[in-house]
Amino acid sequence: MTKKKRWYDYLWIWSILYFALGFFNILFAWLGMIDFLLPLFIAIFGGNKFFCNHLCGRGQLFTVLGKQCKCSRQKPAPAWISSKWFRYGFLIFFLMMFANIIHQTYLVYGGTSSLREVVKLFWTFRIPWGWAYTAGTTADWIVQFSFGFYSLMLTSTLIGLIMMVLFRPRTWCSFCPMGCMTQLICKAKSHGQQPE
Amino acid sequence: MASKNYAEVNWKRCVSCGACTHECPKGAIHVWKGCYAIVDSALCVGCGKCQRICPANCIEVKPREVVT
Fold first, then answer.
1. What is the pTM of this model?
2. Number of folded domains in chain A?
3. Which of A85, A121, A131, B67 matches a 20 to 30 Å C-alpha distance to B26?
């Protein structure tokens, strides 16, 4: 049985396009806010995970590369990766790192700190990324947020790709902070009901 | 006639990512209200495709209990 392809089955292209755009102009990093806010809106107002299930370009990219292109060992990941404490712990860590991006943006906005044209990978390695921005095009804080957010998106995709190769294609999904957050919202909205 | 086996989701560990729903050839599995995946055991043929794709490894293919 072949399932009819829908337009949103090709959103994995968006995932690649996002990083390509950010490579040439870092301001495109702001578009990543769609991937950040849309799942939350769908979970809050729709009470479901339609985003994770159908719209997540990253999850689709892992399926395309891992399953269709056979770039995955297809081995089950250790159980602790999808355990509650690790998922919630990673969510808290991720939110703290996001808060740090906001803080850095605020410091640049207030003039306390100057703009750093670097992409920080795995929250540690600074990669010079100056070519992606021409100084003075827009306010520095807008650019600072772009660099921070792009770093976060790139780091999480790289973690996801490593997980895809080592384990099953969508292993990232089992501890994805957005997936974890939206599932928590959905569970809260369903008031602990159970089907049938 | 129902298949010998069927899939069952450990809903306590399910992350409701939906990977299994795309894999199921019978459309027998869906994510319930974004909370966890559930299997329609009447439709399930027990092929194990969902079990092999599940990133949380929380789907098990079990033999159906024989009703006598």
1. 0.92
2. 1
3. B67
